[in-house]
Write a structure and sequence with these properties.
By secondary structure, the protein is of the alpha+beta class. Among the domains are: about 110 residues, Alpha Horseshoe (Serine Threonine Protein Phosphatase 5, Tetratricopeptide repeat); about 110 residues. It is built from 10 helices and 6 strands; from the N terminus they run αααααααβααββαβββ. The strands form 3 sheets. A two-stranded antiparallel sheet has the order 1-4. The two termini are about 75 Å apart.
Length: about 325
């Protein structure tokens, strides 16, 4: 008895240590590097230890069968191929990766066990049908539960109102916190709107301030003479030298606030995109609207003819 429990503990420990995905990768690597004996042994052992999915079991049986085939163990290959076909009777080997001789052995196993595999197909079909029915039953029960909850809410005088709000991604690219306002984050939206608004106003004011510095300046060219021999003079619109310091200040302010505006716009758009949800569902309880009174006329047979009745619901 002691040895039995010890064997059970060792088996359980080995089962816990086998990770299906990792184990399949290791066995596949052994097969790809030509270590057929080790690949076949480990595949057969792993199939008794870990809970593999159907696709993983098929792959391990295939590796075990092909490894046995390459080792010249035809009976071992046939046994692995039969185990594979019991999982999927209609499985096909890849003709670009598997030698034709191995495919011939595989197809012969399918042919020799045709009756048994037909029974497997029926069992698989029955299982899939049962799973389909079970899924439909779960969906039906879920709908019934939802309907019961709705009726209970109506009896309690309340119903749940669900609002689905669709949000556009394009709004997030607009300035002045448009994306934040769309998401209902008024504080963040107001912060971006005010900051960008102030920067935009300062940049515009700077532009007009620079324009206001321009004056009509008269320039005299002593090297050019008019027809009557006087120096040539003309007027241009320019900023006088004494106002160039103001020009530099306003120019720096214009470009600085402009750059800051676009930078803040980009930050706001990126922040809005990061927090974007294309669909938002909100629920709230509202008083149930009482059902309007209804009347129903019933006609039924009687021993002497017909009878009529009226049912009023309110």
């Amino acid at each position: 008895m002691k040895w039995f429990f010890l064997a059970m503990i060792v088996a359980a420990s080995a089962f816990a240590q086998v990770m299906p995905d990792r184990e399949v990768q290791i066995i596949q690597s052994l097969y790809d590097t030509g270590k057929y004996a080790e690949a076949a042994r480990r595949a057969n052992e792993s199939l008794t230890l870990a809970n593999f999915s159907d696709a993983q079991r098929i792959r391990l049986h295939e590796i075990a069968g092909l490894s046995s085939f390459h080792l010249g163990d035809t009976k071992g290959a046939q046994a692995s191929f039969l185990s594979l076909l019991k999982v999927n009777p209609d499985y096909l080997l890849d003709p670009f990766a598997v030698p034709p001789a191995a495919i011939k052995v595989f197809e012969q196993v399918r042919k020799d066990n045709g009756d048994a595999l037909n029974l497997v197909r029926q069992q698989i079909s029955l299982r899939l049908e049962q799973e389909k029915r079970a899924l439909a039953e779960r969906e039906r029960l879920a709908k019934e539960q939802e309907e019961r909850l709705r009726r209970q809410e109506i009896l309690n005088g309340k119903v749940t109102e669900r609002t689905i709000e669709k949000r556009s991604m394009l709004v997030n690219f607009l300035p002045f916190g448009a994306g934040q306002f769309q998401q209902g984050r008024v504080g963040a939206g107001a912060a971006f709107a005010v900051s960008e608004g102030v920067l935009a106003i300062l940049s515009i004011v700077s532009f007009f301030a620079i324009e206001a510095l321009f004056q009509d300046v008269t320039i005299t060219r002593d090297d050019l003479l008019t027809a009557d021999g006087r120096p040539f003079t003309f007027s241009v619109r320019a900023i006088p030298p004494e106002r160039r310091i103001q020009r530099d200040v306003w120019t720096g302010l214009k470009y600085g606030t402009g750059i800051a505006f676009y930078a803040l716009w980009g930050v706001g758009a990126g922040e809005a995109i990061w927090n974007h949800q294309s669909e938002v569902i909100t629920e709230r309880e509202v008083p149930a609207t009482p059902a309007p009174p209804s009347a129903r006329l019933r006609i039924y047979p009687t021993p002497g003819g017909l009878g009529a009745g009226v049912t009023i619901g309110f």
